[in-house]
Amino acid sequence: MGGNNISSNKKNSTIGNIIFKDKILYGSEIIFDYTIETVKDTSLSEADIDSKAVSILTKLGWKEHTEIRQRKTNILEIDEYLKSKKIGSKRKGHADIYLLMDDKLKVIIDNKEPNKNIQEGIDDAIFYANCLLGKKYDIRIALSYNGKQCALRVFDSESNRWIPFLIDGEEIEAFPSKELVEIIYRYRDIKGIIIKKDDESINIDRIIQGLKDIYRNVPHIQNDNQKSMDFTISFIALKSILEKHGDDLNKNWIDLRVGEQKKLKEKIKMYVEDIIENLENGYEEIFRIKEDPKGKIKAFDFLEEINQFPNKPEHGGKGYLIQIFERLDELPHLHSSRIDPFGVVYQSLMDPHTRKIFGQFFTPRHLIKTLVRLFFEGEMDRLTGDIKDGKSEKPKTICDPACGTGGFLIESFKYFASNTADVDTVDLAKKSIYGFDIYPANAVRSRINMYLAGDGFSKIDSLDSFTGLKEDTLQFDYILTNPPFGKGDYCVDDDIISNKRKEINFLVKVIKLLKPHGKALIIVPDGILEAPTLAPLRKWVIENCEIEKIIGFPKHEFAPYTHEKTYVLFLKKRPETVTDFNDVKTERIWMYIIDADGYANSDNRFRTGKKNENGKWLHDELSLWRDKKGAYHISILEDNWKKKIQSPNEKYTDEWDVKIEGLKYEFVDLNTIFTEKYSFYQTLNKADILKMLQSEKNIIPPKKITEVLEEMENDSDEETEVTKELKTPFETILSSKNIVYDPYEDKFFNQKNPVVINLLNLKPEKYLRQKKSDTITFKQFIKENRTLFKNVHKNLPNIENIKSIKKMGKLNKTNIRDLFHIWQGHQITDKEIYNSKKGDIPIITGHNEIKGYTTNPYITDVPCITIPSKGIVNRLYLQSQPFDANNTIALIPKNRKEIDLEYFIFTQSDYITSFISSTSTNNYLNRALLEDIEVKYPKYSIQQQIKEEYKKLIKMKDILENNIGLLSDQLFKDVK
């Protein structure tokens, strides 16, 4: 019989960060939804109610016809088992609606008219369900709807009764989502769900911030961010270990609540030594982190740090160690909780400089969680393998070959631990999870974090994945990784690509390490997806993998470590290499652009936290959200993945509530990607370039040319004064000789005599955000624009006329402070803008406007002129409406009949902005210097004449630019 397999669950079990106890599921981020809609017309027929029920179910994500079936399941054995409700009748019976998942019946629904009692309907639904139970079919949910009420019952096999289902103690009388149905079938005899109300992540964040204040006064910790982080993690681990294994050791965390620092030191040392001596699984390295595998260099020793605290209080009051303990004592029970201590500690204790250095080992956890859920969707049955006596046999393997601090491995472990009710997850982790990192201390930290996630002891070692992992002897079913970017010194396979950049070789290595049909998730920079010189690499990837998804991240996702635009590839390895692209041209890639991840899209990555009236995130596409009913929902990204195709009425805005033009997601077929061609050019080495540029010694001194080339060789992240000074002439000379530099290849290319190949651009923006235009012939274009070009030429103002106007009359001469009141805009941080009250006054930052927000005070004396005081200081701007300013100077005229503001902007922008101070990364306009700038101007009437001539020039310039742009954008069918 093809029914569901009935398996027995343990009555009480801890599953990752979710606890199933006494038939109740406890957790803080359990994804489910339920809903009901009522009808006003009480005269509706049962068929009308059926139709309404189908409409409600589709809104919850059920698919009509495949997952929602009416009157018949079209599964012969099920339809045969259902009897008629009439006593003695030999005819077959049927319910009104059946809900199926993976072609297995999960829910039976029997509806009634609005004037019928809902109890009558639920009795009928239970009758049909009992018909199947009598045939040993695993059916657990019965439901009825009469347009006004909904009744839902779940089967309890121990009592052999159908009982209500409870959410936070309240019976739900509604239609269930697919996620809720999955939960009911995952946990046998479940009675309900309790959602934890306390937000542990906020709690631990507050506590860690308190520790930061204490560490500022501790001499041996205060100036070492890495040490403060390791010290905190070890202390948190001690709490977690004692909570889980304290009874075995006859030692408990609460016993450390002593009033004397000397006693606390002694107890901590004794407890840690007992843990190391008596517990297995490598607990020593939680407290003693070694920098190299042989242990010759110690990166951190917890007990050495404890010893450095004096026995008596340092300042006469409570000792610092006592204060630290009391802070950590505020933490809730840690073992198997949803807290990510390392993530919070990293975000809170690292200063910007250390975070930038350490950032290559750390991937934001809110990002990882969502990617992991997408990656393992539908994979759980495959992952666990066969289950015998609660343990998995030959489970699938999961690997991160650049694991850093273990983010992907931890969240993978938490995910499958929370989604497998009958498996020993610790045993599964030991058999399934592999992690490797070239830095020994990182491998140790990864193992510590796996323990804190719930005893996820795994094979995590220090290893150079490029040379230490041999794909001919070890391959994996799943690989998830965020590899380091930048220049490297190793090439995985010269036959594929000779480039030695780390991210390129990790991509090649990951694919080689995958088993046939294995899946990978890998984060890459944008160059891999679009750089013309990497087209052969993309060709190799497509030949060897099916690309399932490409998701783009916001620019600052990994700030301040890198500001490079990044993407994540979801790959599935082909069993055989493709030799003809025609065989795969109908394959489709789901592309998605994340515009907002819940954090400010800048170096200052604070949580924005804006929600709509129902609790849904407004600027966070990655996080789960909880509605007013208490139900948790999947993220916007996951919800859109379920929809697959963006509907025309879906609109999105960025973090400033500005409408996003173009699409957010859609499928792109490979045939579309194959159409674009690329011209491949001959390479030149640096010696050739140096020789060529030295012949231009009248433009650039040879010594400085050498400095620029050396800087390129060193792959510097910041422009030096030399590079900034020489950038324009350097690029001009190369451009005049048809030479371009590609930083990804670290090569110069001669653009003469190109070889044409497939570009294979995989960047989502190209397909989702590209402006589309109609295709016309060249003749049509000329015909449609002939009159316009004539008018442009006819109406162009005489530039000499402007010169002659300037000579008319005597010029006045004065300083800017005599013409204007100068108002220096205060600096408004991004966080202040996010948290400010919504209003009508825009905030002007440079020449950009952030609409719909207001702070006080703001400028009402308008029109006036604004000049950016920081950043790109290249022109003056006219502001006509009241505004607030951020890093901006406002010039308010003292006499509006003395100076015409538009005239002043047209004629003085270049002159005034030449008085700037520069650093390697920013420009600054000093107010004191601005006040003394001397300007000359004619009388008011002549200013207005000059202004009108400038307006004519600008209008004609815009017309020309628009038409030239239109011309370049067209795809000509008939070029003659």
Overview of the molecule:
This protein is an alpha+beta fold and 976 residues long. It has 34 helices and 44 strands. The strands form twelve sheets. Strands 21-20-19-22-23-25-24-26-29 form a nine-stranded mixed beta sheet, with helices on both faces. The longest helix has 30 residues, at 940-969. It starts with 12 loop residues before the first strand and ends in a 7-residue tail after the last helix. The model is unreliable at 1-16, 198-202, 918-922 and 969-976 (pLDDT under 50).
According to DSSP, the number of beta strands is 44
Report low-confidence residues grouped into runs of 5 or more: 1-16, 198-202, 918-922, 969-976
Task: Characterize the overall form.
Answer: globular
Gyration radius, rounded: 34 Å
Structural class: alpha+beta
Estimated helix fraction: 25-40%
Give the amount of beta strand, in percent.
15-25%
Q: What oligomeric state best describes the polypeptide chains here?
A: single chain
- Give a short account of the largest sheet: 9 strands, mixed
Strand order of the largest sheet: 21-20-19-22-23-25-24-26-29
Number of helices: 34
Distance between the termini: 71 Å
Mean pLDDT: 80
